[in-house]
Amino acid sequence: MTETPVQLAAMFIPVLLLALLGGLFIYTVIRCRRIAARFPPSGRFSSGRPGSRLHFVAEGLDGGGGTLPVLVFLHGASGNLHDQKLAFDGKLEARFPRLFIDRPGLGYSERQLRADASPKAQAMRIAALLDELAITNAIVVGHSLGAATAAALGLLRPDVVKGLVFVAPATHPWPGGVNWYYNLASWPVIGAVFCRTLALPAAERLTSPAIGNVFKPDPAPRDYVSAAALPLLFRPASFRANAVDVARLKPHLIEQSVQYPAMKQPAVIVTGDKDAVVWPSIHSEGLKRDLRDAELHVLEGAGHMPHHTHAAQVAHLISGLAGKLEQQTEVRAEEHQVI
User: Fold this and answer.
1) What are the C-alpha distances in Å from 161 to residues 74, 139, 155, 178, 283?
2) What value, to the nearest 5°, has the Cα angle with vertex 159 and ends 157 and 163?
3) In 68-118, which ranges are continuous DSSP H helix?
4) In what order do the strands lie in the sheet with 70-74?
């Protein structure tokens, strides 16, 4: 019996789809090797079993147990430590030690895909790193989704986290959901196939408009993609980890945000009045309402990336909080000596 054209098409379509996915898989493997060669690890790794190590860059760090607070930087979604390092290099007082961390699953930090997805779980991993580095006096600076992890770290370890800086924070539940591709990439099986085939080539072609949207109304820094090592995100494991973080963030924040009034640390909140990625009226103003000791600074004309577009102002606020805490530590030390 001779097959009709429709029957022949029905037979070949699955074959063509498999061939297409196979080609995209091979392309992804090749591109991942090139990305890793172009952007190798730039820092050190925490100790621990394979699959649980954090990648970090430490500058001027000698323990952090003295009067100088260590500035700990946590990047947002779809990024890595290079985003924060690029923003603040040369803009903060050199006397303050700095620690830039790849959040679990991003950059070169390792993770368990779902077990390490919540801000609290990531805070526990970062707290272990601070203990390993003997840091007992820290100011945590968190941008966007990294601000949720910063808040979780402040709740978890008030003995170590003496102050907090929230930059364009995503810290409270919001109406609605997230973009469809975050949900798709986070799904079992289908998400893994998507991230190993379609995600990387699609992300490479959509990078420019995506960056423009995140930085608007200001332009992105020149050569931001390369300077921030952004292609590290396109690798399947990192892309999927980021998607799981974003897709599951809202339910985590529903639980976490009710705990914010318990935080006693002084905090600085920095937001742009033109932020089109997160809603300042929900997150920044929510933090101002919920925290006991918080200053809210609204930067006129700034979007979601004020640490780049208004870097001097943000760095000044970070340095101001660090200086304030340094003075308080010195006063307590003097009072202890008198006693």
Assistant:
1) 13, 6, 9, 30, 21
2) 80
3) 81-88
4) 44-45, 55-59, 98-101, 70-74, 138-143, 161-167, 267-272, 294-299
How would DSSP label each residue in 186-212? HSTTHHHHHHHHTHHHHHHHHHHHHHH
Question: What are 264-311's pLDDT values in tens digits?
Answer: 999 999 999 999 999 999 999 999 999 999 999 999 999 999 999 999
Q: What is the pTM of this model?
A: 0.93
If we measure between CA atoms, which residue out of 204, 194, 269, 268 comes closest to residue 232? Answer: 204
Q: What angle do CA 40, 103, 168 make, to 5 degrees?
A: 115
Would you tell me how many other CB atoms lie within 10 Å of the CB of residue 1?
4
**Which has the closest alpha carbon to 299: 168, 107, 210, 207?**
168
Burial of 113 (0-12, 13-18, 19+ CB in 10 A): middle
Q: Which tokens in the block code for residue 91? A: 């803009």
DSSP for 222-257, please give it: TTHHHHTTGGGGGSHHHHHHHHHHHHTHHHHHHHHG
Tokens of 121: 């779980």
CB 35 within 8 A of CB 26: no
Residues in Cβ contact with 316 at an 8 Å cutoff, skipping those fewer than 6 apart: none
